Amino acid sequence: MSNRIEAYIEWVNTHAQSRGRQAEAIPADPHGRVGTGRFRRTLAWHITRRPGGLVALAVQYGHMRTLISEGYGSRSRGGIHDVLDFETARNVAEQLSEVLNAIQDGAGVSGLAARRLINAVAQEHHCFSGLITSNRQAKVLLADPTLNVFENKEAFLFCNYDRSKALCHPGRNAKSEAPGPDRCKVNCASIARTDTHAHQLREAADDLGRQATSGQVPEPLADRLLERAQVLTELANQHCHDRVLAAAGAEL
Question: Whole-prediction pTM value?
Fold first, then answer.
């Protein structure tokens, strides 16, 4: 595996140089060969920061952890799982820290889980200050159900996941540790939106409107695009009507 990683780095650098794109080459590691340990860290960082990355980790690697535990026992505690847990916790802390900065600047939060998001931001700031530096801190954060916050960029919201109330899993007795991002319901008790999400909703609605009126799509499709744009606009308007400020929900 280590040899394959080194061969991959060499291929990337040769490819970049042959096309005059040296800025995209992978620089030499001052600690020597990259190796599987640092490669795992890089992989985990990129997975967690892809759209839906946290959900993917919670679902896929949760299942993977269970399967490996059954087959290999205590060895499942090491390697990629610890790295993924650390990067997951770090990304959650970074997201909540960004929300903290926004609401301290006067941004509002809406949704049935608005107070829970505000309280989660306050708790994360009090305990971690947006910075995860050890596996112990990562385990503490991930073990706290009040900090199970996933951002669904496709639906323009934060999911403060509570499996006992989540509408994305109709059979709520099922032991699902992660939300279903493709099954978000607008009336779910786990949803919270920020002013940033409202702005993104309006931008998406405007983009759909431009597509619908461009004259380049069939009329039935244009009608559906306009209907979707109207839904997104209504969600943005609802946020502006229902938004609350952090000062009313938690002391930051």
Answer: 0.69
